[in-house]
Amino acid sequence: MSTIRLIPWAVDPTAQVIHDCVHFDGSPVEISPRYVLRRVLDLYKAKGWKPVVAPELEFYLVDMNADPDLPLRPPVGRTGRAETGRQSYSIEAVNEFDPLFEDIYEYCETQDLDIDTLIHEVGAAQMEINFMHGDALSLADQVFLFKRTVREAALRHNMYATFMAKPMEGEPGSAMHVHQSIVDEETGQNLFTSQETGGATSMFYNYLAGLQKYTPA
Hints:
alpha+beta; Creatine Kinase, Chain A, domain 2; 5-stranded antiparallel β-sheet; 5 helices; 7 strands; about 30% helix; globular
């Protein structure tokens, strides 16, 4: 029950649990994403390694739109005006939606979601949130819960939030970047960095080559 968390926006005390998928005989469903990730982590563990990751999620805030045939538009912020131009990394543009972000941070704290910095990205009302570095499976669960949290918080402020890759024509796309490193389980040493030179190790370059070869285009 390590994934049990309160739902902070529920009227009555309500819990949520992320669980593993199993068949009736108790055997795991092998195509379940959590099971696939567990198997990958077991392969690392067998070598005495541990992956350390930190996701970055990009998303758009958009005006409420009940008709899916109509294009999405940026929402109206505290000033009563919608964004009409690019405001990359602008503090003022983030402040437009301060009440929403206060709720998001409060909801995340209640759920033990280890988020860090929020910034305004390139697109109109496009935001990015960074998670702290940590365990891959735990962060996969946290990202799942974070998306639900942001959508729910946005609704309470009369707007939608979308993590779609390209929700608006003419605006930059959204992605999820994952910072990655591998450490020795016993020593905590970063296996991508040479202890002698401080430069990249051959393992780091092999890792990059593996990503290029096996990651789907």
